[in-house]
Amino acid sequence: MPTHEPDRRETGPSLERILGLIDPGMLDVVVAPRGTGVPVTDVVLHDPGEEREDDGARAAAGLILLAVGVEAASPEALDVLRAADRAGAAAVVMRPGARGPRAELVEAAGRGRTALLTRRPEQGWTEVLGRLRTALVHSDPAGTTGVAGLRPGDLSGLANTVAALVGGAITIEDPQSRVLAYSRLDHEPDPMRRLTILGQEVPRWRVDELRASGFFRTLWSTEDVVRLPADDRYAERLAIAVRHGSEVLGSIWAAADGRPLAEDAAAALRTAARAAVPHLSHHQTWGLAAARAREGAVHALLRGDVRSAREAGVTADRPYAVVVAEAYDGRGEEAYDGQGTSEGRGAGAPEGRGAGRAGRRVLDVLALQAAAYRPGCVTARSGRRLYVLVPAGDGEAGPERTLLASVRSVPRDVVLAGAGPVAAGPAGLPASREAAELVVRVLRERAARLPAGEVRSAVAAYDEVVPEATVLRLLDRVEPLWGSLAGPVHAMVEHDRVHGSAYGDSVTAYLDASCDTGTAARRLNVHPNTLRYRLRRARELFGVDPADPAVRLLAEIGLRLAARRSDRPGSP
């Protein structure tokens, strides 16, 4: 196999280093005629239509070409490989196909200069492109100036390092002004930083203010530090965009913490912006993917797949309690599908669409509180809900109580949170989840009986709501049978549905008030004589007589089920 010296114009990290930084098994090296020490300058999608037979300028020198749509077993694969070799590419990547690369293709690659790689069938081209480009950025020695020793994607470590250099408080944000990391301080410089960190994003009104003033336009259009002077509200800030080529990955902000920023703060931020490139790239490609994989493992574990415990970050021999927090919006109940989405009763939308901005914000805050409450807390989202696996100490009772109490501190938004019993190990987590969800359903039904202005955040543990939770379980079992039956209560509910009458509401209020007409009338905001008239008509028209024990039991069941159905979206 021939060997050649790399072209002097080719500079960059080696192919070996790039492959070492991506997931093992994502790409397979079929043939590397010059070895894997050849330098790589960039990763691009390969377009066969742009090839030129007379191109002697080595236009692809040092590139990894992703031959999208080309299968290594296809006839055109040989043409693509030869064209890449003529252009000086470091490597070309193809789909292996069912039979793998043709022998003719492997032989041709061995006689050339360009390495032949194949991607695994389960890997998508978009993911391969992202991982390779991130690895390329992270391999750039210039990108680690001044922050040696940080692991890839350690944005918190970067923020703390930069804070020490600039003498102020640091936040690292994405282009949408969401907080990715912040430096730790004993005190915060001003209320804006507290609001930003608590909400995990710059408040929308502040973003609008900076956009209207032209600050963001300046920040995104320059490669230098931009100064935001102090005013009577907030401390001085310096900001710089973090760029990879023409792409803006985010920004770094430095805020004075009661004393002037260091004289060389601007220079330190310029260094930090270069150093942040591989970390933000890593966050975009690996960090987010790893977070999604970890959250998926948590959902799998809550469904009963104990094999997912390790990937979810759950210690196999440690007890946990499952806490469920729901951003309440007055809608019906939400069924857990274990996929990070909400389906069935009262949701029907993936997280991010059904939750709404306010709901997402309050759940983000609670996730932060969970992480701060106890090391080892594991969280996962599903629609309007946040699931938290809270580790328990040896002999400790109710480790979730402190976390539940923090729900009450969430301003403005209504949150309902419940805790299931402590599970001895991963196998018991699905049962703890189901119990916690029942608690939330109980709290939701309580909230639904209150006037909108009186609904407040509420928390409870399963052992505090056992009777109500048991009723819900019974109704779940009875509901399929109830729809196939007929009787006085069925007739009354159908009459209310067709004619818009309120006989069912009147009977419900009367039963809930333990058959006290005065109390029930006040809850309905009607005169007691009006309620007595409605109850008499319910007996005359449908045979619904609350004085009859059997009818009273059927009314309790049927009216609860009718209210449940009416709460579901799309109900007539």
Question: How many extended strands?
Answer: 18
What oligomerization state is this entry in? single chain
Radius of gyration: 31 Å
User: Describe the biggest sheet?
Assistant: 5 strands, mixed
Q: What's the rounded overall pLDDT mean?
A: 79
Strand order across the biggest sheet? 1-5-4-3-2
- Mass-distribution shape: globular
Key structural traits:
single chain; 572 residues; alpha+beta; 5-stranded mixed sheet; 5-stranded antiparallel sheet; 16% strand
What would you note in describing this structure?
With 572 residues, this protein is of the alpha+beta class. The chain is 43% helix and 16% strand. It is built from 19 helices and 18 strands. It has helices spanning 15-21, 76-87, 103-111, 125-138, 155-166, 191-199, 204-213, 215-221, 265-303, 309-312, 356-373, 401-407, 429-448, 466-482, 488-499, 503-512, 517-524, 528-542, 549-566, and strands at residues 27-31, 42-45, 63-71, 91-95, 115-119, 169-173, 179-182, 226-228, 237-244, 247-255, 320-327, 335-336, 341-343, 349-350, 378-382, 385-391, 415-419, 458-461. The strands form 4 sheets. A 5-stranded mixed sheet has the order 1-5-4-3-2, with helices on both faces. It has a 5-stranded antiparallel sheet with strand order 7-6-10-9-8, sandwiched between helices. It has a 5-stranded mixed sheet with strand order 15-16-11-17-18, with helices on both faces. Strand 12 and strand 13 form a beta hairpin. Helix 5 runs antiparallel to helix 9 (265-303) and helix 15 (488-499) packs parallel to helix 19. The longest helix has 39 residues, at 265-303. It starts with 14 loop residues before the first helix and ends in a 6-residue tail after the last helix.
